[in-house]
Amino acid sequence: LLTVCLFPSLSLREKLRSIAQATYAHSRNLAYFVFTYKGLLAAQSRLQGKRIPFHSFLAACIGGWLVFGDNNPINSQIIMYLLSRILFGLSRLAVEKGYIPQPRQDPFPLLAALVWGTVLWLFEYHRGTLQPSLQASMTYLYEDSEVWHDLSDFLVYNKRTDSK
Predict the structure, then answer these.
(1) Quick check: pTM over 0.85?
(2) What is the per-residue DSSP string for 83-150?
(3) DSSP per residue over 139-163, as a string?
(4) I need a labelling partner for 161 at 20 to 30 A (CA). Which of 7, 54, 94, 127 fits?
(5) Domain locations in the chain?
(6) What pLDDT does 4 receive?
């Protein structure tokens, strides 16, 4: 939604169509995944007479492959969202299980610094490795923003070629 609204290359009708298509694809894929996952869980439980933790992992792997295996912008966003949540969850689990010690202070500021340092380094020196929508957003924020005409640049869009 933000990317579609932020960049004015599309008409309002095209923006609304793009948002509707992305919303439909997102919800359809989630519905297909839930149906596949729950169906595979039920099948495994029925075949083995009980449900075991591995069933969840296997059903989700198969569902992920079938439903989210196509590398497109919608699936990519969902996978990146999940990956970030997984890393946080695994970090908490590692502390909970005693694999790593409980931090003495909140590690989030260090994580924020490393994430921002890495993404801006990639943007400046290895831009092509970043997802296209991230590249476009960062170009808008860190390059296009170097040219200002008036307050409308901030409120509307700052990529005008005319000078006042």
Answers:
(1) no
(2) HHHHHHHHHHHHHHTTSSPPPSS-SHHHHHHHHHHHHHHHHHH-GGGS-HHHHHHHHHHHTGGG---S
(3) HHHHTGGG---SHHHHHT-S-----
(4) 127
(5) 1-68, 70-102, 106-146
(6) 63
Distance CA 143, CA 160 (A): 13
The pLDDT of residue 164 is 42
What's the half-sphere exposure (Cβ side, CA atoms, 13 Å) at 42? 6
d(CA 36, CA 64): 9
Backbone region of residue 49 per phi and psi (left: phi > 0; alpha: psi in -120 to 50; beta: other values): left
Non-local CB neighbours of 163 within 8 Å, separated by 6+ positions: 149
Residues 6+ apart with CB under 8 A from 15: 4, 5
SS3 content of the chain, % helix, strand, coil (to 5): 75, 0, 25
- Which residue bears the tokens 């946080």? 88
